[in-house]
Amino acid sequence: xxxxxxxxxxxxxxxxxxxxxxxxxxxxxxxxxxxxxxxxxxxxxxxxxxxxxxxxxxxxxxxxxxxxxxxxxxxxxxxxxxxxxxxxxxxxxxxxxxxxxxxxxxxxxxxxxxxxxxxxxxxxxxxxxxxxxxxxxxxxxxxxxxxxxxxxxxxxxxxxxxxxxxxxxxxxxxxxxxxxxxxxxxxxxxxxxxxxxxxxxxxxxxxxxxxxxxxxxxxxxxxxxxxxxxxxxxxxxxxxxxxxxxxxxxxxxxxxxxxxxxxxxxxxxxxxxxxxxxxxxxxxxxxxxxxxxx
Length: 294
Hints:
By secondary structure, this protein is an all-alpha fold.
């Protein structure tokens, strides 16, 4: 992956890591659907301004199946399911279940997008998933979870995985800005049934909770989804999915630095495994003659 794409991927994982704190904070005063719609409306507003300023144009017809699929599944269904699931299970359980998503991306990408199943990628996914599971266990509050909450987090993971596989082909025909902007528009339209809830909750929510919703829309949505699409257009879906395993490790570090939550040894071990797995997934084995393979 070129240097600019690596920077873009880094911006994405940093902002997505920060989103977990904002989702849990805003979720105390906003219902799942209203939170998703508010986030998508804020993101759509920012993206629309940038798109218009840059004269982005309308994506070609060939890009629309991918834009519609990713918009409905990833921008829409994923966000509602994740918000709802995080209200019913503890953060550790949510982290463990949602981190099935990158595995879904790799499997579907290898099959439907013909990316194959490189051994380094599969090994890295396995290591990172174990790390994410360890972080999840260490963050668990002792089992405050429900079957419905686990199923919602699983739905979020699968929606994310399928959404990425929809998005990748669209990037062959349209720019990252176009795919992200119109995907966000589609997600916002899909969440319009929650509009009345959003109107009611905005009037009663605290300023802090509403600012969290706006933050989620501007940074982890508008900016991070655009940098994600930019990087995804320049590498495989499987490798980009594996990169998101950096998120649990960054969340641990952010909590340590910003909130003074000193992680235990089990959490640190899980974070290190996440980092190691991403490194393995992005490695390229070489033959004795020095030529890259795989």
